[in-house]
Amino acid sequence: MDWIQLAIEAGFGLAFIIVVMSMAGLTVVAERKFCGFIQGRLGPNRTTIPILGSIPFFGRLITRMGLFQLVADGSKFLFKEEIVPGHVNKFYYNLAPIVALIPPLVPLVVLPFGQMTLADGTIRQLIIANVDIGMLVILAFSSLGVYGTVLAGWAANSKYPFMGGIRASAQMISYELTMGLSILPVFLWANVPGSTEGLSIANIVVFQQTHWFVYLQPLTALLFLVALFAETNRAPFDMAESETDLVGGFHTEYGAFKFGIFFVSEYAHVIVGSGLFVLLFLGGSNFLPMLPNPWPIGIPGAILSTLWFIAKTSALVFFFIWIRWTLPRFRYDQVMNLGWKMLLPVAIANLVFVMVLLAKITPVAAQ
Amino acid sequence: MPGKVKEIERKPLSLAEKTFLPQIVSGLKVTCANMLRKKVTREYPDVLPPIPPGYRGMPTLVKDPDGREKCVSCQLCEFVCPPKAIRITPGAIPEGSPNAHVEKAPQEFEIDMLRCIYCGMCQEVCPEEAIFLQNKFTLNGLSRQELVFNKERLYEAGGTLQDQHFKWKKKKEAEEHGNAQH
Ligand code: SF4
Ligand code: SF4
Questions:
Q1: For residues A284 and A173, what is the distance between their CA atoms, to the nearest angstrom?
Q2: Ligand 1 site residues, Cβ closer than 6 angstroms
């Protein structure tokens, strides 16, 4: 591999992180806005920056959309006093936010975010590292995410964060199973016998050019979505923080910038999770099911398809927000029951069903 | 009370209900409808709430349409005021003033807005309809002293009352027409 290639990939990686981080910020504002709308309020709409806010049309628009709130919140986290409680384990206490932030960002390298049609008609998936174990990388790293939570809960050395951390790990184990089992049918379906693509996500996207998995395998999509909600610790599965019974859960003892990092990592998790769902079930950067991709040749097509992918992801992020402000939190035992007694058996049955179905419809010659 | 207890039969959940999905979908519908509904937020400092008639805001002193201060410093309000928020220094109206026939007016009239409980008794008791609780409900200041309103500020806040009585004017006119009893 030559250096230029490496530099380009590093540049893409950096751009990716910047996009995801700014989307995480925007998601925070969107969350507050839509939560307001759902509750009949307007959400943040007054924060403004003196000169920028008085630009005739856009200043007011941005103010009303609450975008300056993002800046205000961010700088508040930056400039607040960092209080480290006396009873914590300092090393792990400081380590936990870092451990929480990295796992959601690493899987970005294996997400195919767009596609480029070359002049000779071949289509290249835009991806930083097109490895054939892509899905495995994602599963491995997204389960590492729980270490941030557990570490925070343990290092805080007080009972509520501790219970939050314990709950998070129990929940993670229960739902990881369902998640893995709900991914398998997709890869089984997309990999015809003899294929060498393995667990590459780009392959899934290529496969979905005509049909999307969301209607080929609706049950799988549903199982994956539920597991995704649990994995990202979002309502109705936000057991790890559940303010009503655990004060603030694992981040009770955190404040200022460290809390901000937990906050951002949660939203980064949501965004990456939504992106993954879009890739696996909603056709990734493909236009619409049963329609040919309208992307022009070359760079413009690459940009358009990337934007389309971002739009789909944002729609799913909106769905995450919508669900959060609709459903009450499950009780902890309900979460466990749901995971082990309903989702897991259904996921196994679904896997067997898809296996039998594929064995029936695949031509015998290919076996 | 066995007869009064109404037993409600608890039906076992159907399969669809056990998955929570129908309920989740109906919940999503409700929140979606809410999202599209008109918002109930009133952007308060920019948009003031409608104030109903009879609202008891800050007590103020008013003048009559001729610009005469209506208060005759009878001090009834001072005596009735439950928290003793009012302090009046009575004074005489000097000879030669057009209002000399009224004889008395407050030299100083102070209401301590921090003590006032906005009960409206002063307005109720005033025989001259000189003191009114009006619409203003946001009062603030940087010191306690600043919230003790003196006569000047009370008149400024009160303005003019559009009444048609002209009690003192009619009395004077009647006297001038030689009707001592008017
Ligand atoms: S405001 Fe009315 S009650 Fe109070 S002193 Fe003046 S005239 Fe009397
Ligand atoms: S409203 Fe009540 S408390 Fe306030 S000045 Fe009048 S009588 Fe006193």
A1: 28
A2: B 71-77, 88, 125-126, 128, 130-131
Mean pLDDT of A232-246: 75
Q: DSSP characters for A63-119? A: HHHTHHHHHHHHHHHHHS-----TTS-HHHHHHHHHHHHHHHHGGGGG---EEEE-T
Share of residues in chain B with pLDDT > 90 (%): 20
Q: Where are the alpha helices (DSSP H) in chain B?
A: 15-18, 21-36, 76-80, 121-125, 151-158, 167-176
- Mean pLDDT to the nearest integer, A228-243: 78
A310 contact partners, CB below 8 Å, separation of at least 6: A19, A23, A113
Helix (H, G, I), strand (E, B) or coil at B69: strand
Each residue of A88-122: pLDDT tens digit? 888 888 888 888 888 888 888 888 877 777 777 77
Q: Let me know if residue A1 belongs to a domain.
A: no
Q: Name the minimum distance, in Å, from the CA of A7 to any CA of chain B.
A: 45
A184 in any annotated domain: yes
* pLDDT of the residue at A367: 44
* Segment A262-276, tens digit of pLDDT: 888 888 888 888 888
Half-sphere exposure of B62 (CA within 13 A, CB side): 18
pLDDT digits (tens, 9 = 90+) for B52-65: 888 898 999 988 88
Residue nearest to ligand 1 atom 4, measured at CA: B77
CA distance A337 to B180: 96
Alpha carbon of B14: minimum distance to chain A alpha carbons (Å) = 15
Helix axes A218-231, A159-190, angle to 10 degrees: 150
User: Chain A: nearest CA to B71, how far in angstroms?
Assistant: 44
A206 domain-assigned: yes
Domain that holds residue A226: 80-361
CB of B86 closer than 6 angstroms to any ligand 2 atom: yes
CA distances from A321 to A20, A28, A33, A35, A230 (A): 17, 10, 10, 8, 14
Q: Which residues in A lie closer than 8 A to residue B31 (C-beta atoms)?
A: 38, 322, 325-326
- Which pLDDT value is given to residue B125? 93
ipTM of the shown complex: 0.73
- Total domains present in chain A: 1
Residues of B in contact with A39 (CB under 8 A): 34
Average pLDDT over residues B78-92: 91
Residue of A nearest to B21 (CA): A222
- Token pair 């399969």 is found at B15
Best CA proximity match to B75, nearest among B60, B87, B63, B62 = B87
Residue A118 lies in a domain: yes
Overall pTM surpassing 0.80 (yes/no): no
Per-residue tokens: A132: 């054939």
On average, the pLDDT of chain B sits at 86
